[in-house]
Amino acid sequence: MDKDPITLEIIQNSLRSISDEMFAAMRKTAMSAIIYEVLDMGTAITTAEGELASSGAGIPAFSAMLDKSVRRIIELHGASGAIERGDIFITNDPFYGGVTHLNDVVLAMPVFSGEKLIAWTVNIAHWNDVGGMVPGSMSTEAKELFQEGLRLPGVKLISKGVVIEPVVKIIEANSRLPDFLVGDMWAGISAARLGERRILDLIQKYGQDVFESAITDYMTFGEQVSLAALKNLPKGRFQHSETQDDGVVNNVTIEITDTEFIVDLRDNPDQQGGSVNSSRDGVMVMAQQIFKSVTDPYTTCNGGTFRPLKLLTRAGSVFDAAEPCAQGFYFEVIIRVFDLMWRCLAPHVPQLPSGHFASICATIIGGCHPDTGRWYTIVEPELGGWGAADGMDGNTAVFSGIHGDTYNCPAEISEARYGVYVDRMELNPESGGEGEWRGGRGIRMDYRIRSNESFLTCGYTRSKYAPWPSNGGREGTPNYIEVIRKTGEKEKFSSVTGLVVDEDDVIRVITGAGGGFGEPEKRSPELIQEDLQNGYLTLERAREVYGYQIDA
Amino acid sequence: MSIQPIIRVATDVGGTFTDMAFIEVGSDGTQIVRTAKTDTTPPNFEQGVLNVLERGRVEITEVGFLAHGTTVVINALTERKGAKTGLITTEGFRDSLEIARGNRPDFFNLHYQKPAPFVPRYLRRELPGRITYRGEERIPLDLSGLSAILDDFKEQNVEAIAICLLHSYANTRHEEEVIAAIKKYWLDVSVVASHQINREWREYERTNTAVLSAYVQPIAEQYLSGLESAMDRKGFMGNLYVMQSNCGVDNLSRSKRIPITMVESGPASGVLAAAELGKAIGEPNILALDIGGTTAKCSLIENSEVKIVSDYWIERTPSNAGYPVMVPVVDIVEIGNGGGSIAWVDEFEKLHVGPKSAGALPGPAAYGKGGVEATTTDANLLLGRINPEYFCGGEIQADVKASTDAVSRVASQLGIDMIEAARGIVRIANNNMTNALKLVSLNRGYDPRDFTLVAFGGGGGMHGVALAAELGVKKVIIPNGAAVFSAWGMIMSDLRRDIFVTQLLDLQNDAWRILDELLLQVEDQAIAQFASEGVSNDRVSFRHLAKMRYQNQEHSVEVEVPRRPLSKSSLSDLEIRFHEIYEREYTYRLQSPVEIVGIHVVVTADIGRFELSKVKVADAGCGPETAHKEIRDVDFAQEGVHSTSIYDGALLSPGMEFEGPAVIEDSGATTVIHPGNKASVDVFGNIHIVLTEDSNG
After folding, report:
1. Residues B175, B87 within the same domain
2. Residue B366 maps to a domain
3. Which chain B residue shows the shortest CA-CA distance from A189?
4. Sign of CA dihedral A455, A461, A464, A468
5. How many Cβ atoms are within 10 Å of B338's Cβ, its own excluded?
6. Do the domain assignments include residue B487?
7. How confident is the model at residue A2 (pLDDT cuts 50, 70, 90)?
8. Which carries the bigger pLDDT value, residue B579 or residue A273?
9. Same structural domain, B410 and B373
10. Cβ A446–B92 below 8 Å, yes or no?
């Protein structure tokens, strides 16, 4: 079989379809809503050495996570010759290739052509409960990783095709939701095996040699795309500092040259005692994402894509936390870095809109389903408003920038599955985000609790400092939760763990509007009238911000 | 039995052409088949229909059955030419249409623009009242604000109203009350409630479906009424049916009320035709592939059953969330890859084919109408697969020079010679189509090697064998009259309705009673509905499917329910079948409890059937040599250049057999038979191509 460019391209296309097929299969078979609906999952194929060849993901962050897991597994087991055909390794520990928090479980399978290790198929998904100090395993009060659940340090789950039952039993015994866990585990195993079969079919068809050339060529292609796009970016050193809700100041410097994109995060605070820390890998994923977004958002992303990217961090800092610090809410750390890099580049890169609500708004509600008597846990990110850009009002009610093809849960399904009432799911009416182009609206959603002794855990940011505007626009509005007790008493939260809520208490989720772009005075009167007609704007606010006067 | 001839006609109004297929079955069983084509005549589409009937020499007064396919609904949606629509929802949920599901498929693009809702916020209104997911009333419906809403709608010149209330799938009463109240207050406004279209959960999807149906209702009703009166004036006495997206037809009154179910009727008739052909020739398991000018569409048929789903979107792409339409639609995958797809080279010297198409104008370079871009058709021409002297059925002379120039440009960008580039274009196009076929087979747990490929449309025969070889498919069938195959499918249609109802049920205790009751209720409603439309009970039949999953999963698989009435043991039968189907699709099974999420009832009403007619056999002793036209060199891409026999499709006759390499030239399409393939003609005139072991992959 020859290595003509068309054959190589066909193999590369096939790799993309295989990772998509693994993704579809896993999504369909998963047990937990956070996997099949929120798409807190990803699938990938890597080279034998753990370089990303192709990925399928619902959340962009997950597309460039799995190469890091594979490389760590190779580090741990490669030398001893313990990687064999039919094996599947499992890890969730950020210090053993798990990258994120303990809920995200990685399954990695080596693919052998004859005796030779030729590739890996690998996937990651958020398991609902892996033990730890609170249901759902994520606590804003955890001080150490040990409090966040069972650590799976890159060990074998399956050896030469045979499931290691004791390992499964240990994992099951450590979860509050073992049925979900076993279902989600099998969804991952079958996806990894499916990928292995498809890759072997490709190798059989085109030959190992041609297959390997196709991958090498593909990486080079990824690098070429990035280098070509770098040429169109503004060159120089860009710096930004930003105060966070908790008063801490985060700093970033980004240097763009013709061949490099260097993100320097060394000048940042030490890691914290709580769970708001991230591993270096987690931060790297964010740097990769912003890099991809400003270079070439459309073509496939593989190991070659990120060759021009350099990340500098300081060990022991909040962005490169050391063992055994807790990381349950790592995602609020990495979205802060993501938003910081975005804000740093926005004045120079026109395809970056103003700031969006920029929080995962992780909301965890649990209790007893009043109709079935079964325990339920809602684990969900929330929708919010996006920022405006030149010539474009911001999007209304979309998941955060580090999400992608994630779906919210319909009220009709929440009510049936969880036994709560959703009193409303509507646009947040609070004023903000005005400008020549205005930010999109966040949401206001009411969960009415139906069982006593239920709980709420949440960890929102951009609760104090609202989404940032550009070019003289107005800032957006903050994210928070309001608990309205049966008595009518109201409490406001951005971060809370295990708050007890009872029947007829209402948990009101409020997410922010995105920042505006350009001075409000420049907004066209027709658009202001439309906003008034549609109730996106009150007359009072129109007068105040836009200087709007009704025609006589 | 009547001794009158049966005359069935199908007309299909497309963007450019209006097609017709006509079949007359004489009292002695002989069949006459005719097809015709005319220009589509916007905005008076019925004129085009009358024109095509006239051109096809159809005596309208004698036609008993007229099936009509139209793109009026999908066009009104994509061109945003529907009615000004108002929406009424449950209090707290008017923004559901705008919030949608919050997904951003184009995930590295931070400049993404979310699709705008079809109803602006000021025309979305709310009414208090709540039903629970179990169908109980929690808060009574409060209609006191309705008249003010309607007054406002009138003032805003609203023409159609959609209603979607929370959990109306479980209890339709509140929605029914709102309709009744609207009708009382404002008789002539067009109204539709979500439960009339679909009874599945997910409020955004159901709301959007109701909105889109309301949006197209006035225009569709006007269109169908125009057609009806035009036919009446010509003395049409038969039954007029409208092609639907679920591979069935439906009557005029229902189609006017709920036109959204026509949204994907075009592809549906082709898939149905493939299924019906399979029944006639004993091929129950089929991969149907329709290659047109701009797109290729494929679908999988198992045990002669087309697969109907209710999760369909319009305008959904990898970079756009699109709009969900929760109506029964045949499960197809469509890709932007057809005969007119343009080949292009990106800045990294990678070759792509499609999704941009040269369309009808200018068309491929070979058409000589000013097209300068290389298309799949140009590549096929230069490889000798298409005969330049017999281009488009001999209607025009292919512009070989234009094709050569176009493909040479691609070649120089790639730094290869022209023929290599032409081969590359065909291989990339084939690879795109292979991936689409994998999506409907491998991705859903089916092995394509267990299926027969039925390839039709203008490009079906050209690419079918190469795709089959790639997938390991052993047999390809190119139907007789492949170019008007879809219209033929419409003639074969039953009256069909697919009803989906969400109902959560644990598989225990008296769940079988609840299931039985629900099925009975759906059956009764369907029978009553048909009766009101003049279709009698004895012609109606049912197929029951349960949507099942492991408890807490999201996606369900469909399992055939044992015959009603059910008994306690029905549940264990269902559970056994579920595990089997689940394991086939997903490769494993679990010990977890199983639940029913809802039902899918297929209701069909027999509206007369006829047998496929056999083609007259040529005189005894006539071998394939009588159809042999010439020998010329044909390039089979990876298999190289072969001296190839060319056959005239019109002269082929049942029983003839020959081997590849060969090309069959017909007026509507060209069929390429690769070296080593064995071809034969069956009694209906279809070409069967059997691939040898060698030619597979």
Report:
1. yes
2. yes
3. B588
4. negative
5. 28
6. no
7. low
8. B579
9. yes
10. yes
